[in-house]
Amino acid sequence: MNGEIVWEHFKELQQYFPNVSLSYENDRFYVRGEIQFRAQYLDDEQVDEAYLIEIELPSSYPNAPPISRELGGRIPDTFHTFSNGTMCLGAPIAVKMTFAQNPNLLDFVRTQLIPYLYSFTYKVQHKSLPYGELDHGAKGILHYYIELFQIDSATNCLRFLYILASEKYRGHLLCPCEGGGILRRCHGPLLLELQKYQNPAEFRIELVNCIEFVEKSRKK
């Protein structure tokens, strides 16, 4: 991890969120402090909020997105939170793709963290989420990919994940979407793009989890 880049990104973040600090612990950088923001959804009342947050920078930062936690005890673990207490900001690859567009702390806070925090505040006030309820875990990941590939078959979606997980991309073969075209002229470019953001092992974990979810769903 490049300490100079981290410092530059932190100072940029601190200009807009002055109540944060930077520390280095156990070979990791952490940003901690209060994130204050103002947000509004459609014609709803404007919200002024502040949350006590920890942002952990992975060793591969800025080639990988930060990991965030809420430290004030306001957000329960039932609200889009992983078992280790970190926030689930969306499907893993969606988080990575969004962060890759502008890989810095300020943009991460603005485009991913604050929408998450605002969603929780909105749900507390209105008993619903402003952008609609997203599924958790493997179900949410599967539905994300189904929408991304613009298909309606879970089986075909698993076939795409298998290609990504096994590195068995063959552009001359028929596309798993069953549209009749070969892969390189159909979903191939999208698969090649996705390979830039996750390695086969990460896709393999998602594939296994999604297979388990589909099998359990079929048994019900």
Summarize the structure.
The protein is built from seven helices and four strands.
Note down, in words, how this protein is organized:
- It comes from Paenibacillus eucommiae.
- This is UBC core domain-containing protein.
- By secondary structure, the chain is of the alpha+beta class.
- It folds into 2 domains: 3-126, Ubiquitin Conjugating Enzyme, CATH 3.10.110; 137-219.
- It is built from 7 helices and 4 strands; from the N terminus they run H-E-E-E-E-H-H-H-H-H-H.
- A 4-stranded antiparallel β-sheet has the order 1-2-3-4.
- Strand 1 (20-25) and strand 2 form a beta hairpin.
- Helix 4 (137-149) packs across helix 7 and helix 5 runs antiparallel to helix 7.
- The longest helix has 22 residues, at 105-126.
- It is globular, with a radius of gyration of 19 Å.
Could you give the topology of this structure?
Layout (H helix, E strand, L loop, with lengths): L2 H14 L3 E6 L2 E12 L7 E11 L9 E4 L21 H10 L3 H22 L10 H13 L4 H13 L21 H7 L5 H20 L1
Antiparallel strand pairs: 1-2, 2-3, 3-4
Any idea how many domains? 2
In spatial order, strands of the major sheet run 1-2-3-4
Structural class: alpha+beta
**Total helical elements:** 7
Beta-strand percentage range? 15-25%
CATH class of the largest domain: Alpha Beta
Q: Cα distance, first to last residue?
A: 47 Å
* CATH architectural grouping of the largest domain: Roll
CATH topology of the largest domain: Ubiquitin Conjugating Enzyme
Could you state the order of secondary-structure elements as H and E?
A: HEEEEHHHHHH
What Rg, in angstroms, do the CA atoms define? Answer: 19 Å
Quick one: CATH superfamily of the largest domain? Ubiquitin Conjugating Enzyme
What is the overall shape? globular
**Would you tell me the overall average pLDDT?**
92
Weakly predicted, low-confidence segments: none
Beta strand count: 4
Kindly state the percentage of residues in helix.
Answer: 40-55%
Largest sheet, if any? 4 strands, antiparallel
Protein name: UBC core domain-containing protein
InterPro entries: UBQ-conjugating_enzyme/RWD
Organism: Paenibacillus eucommiae
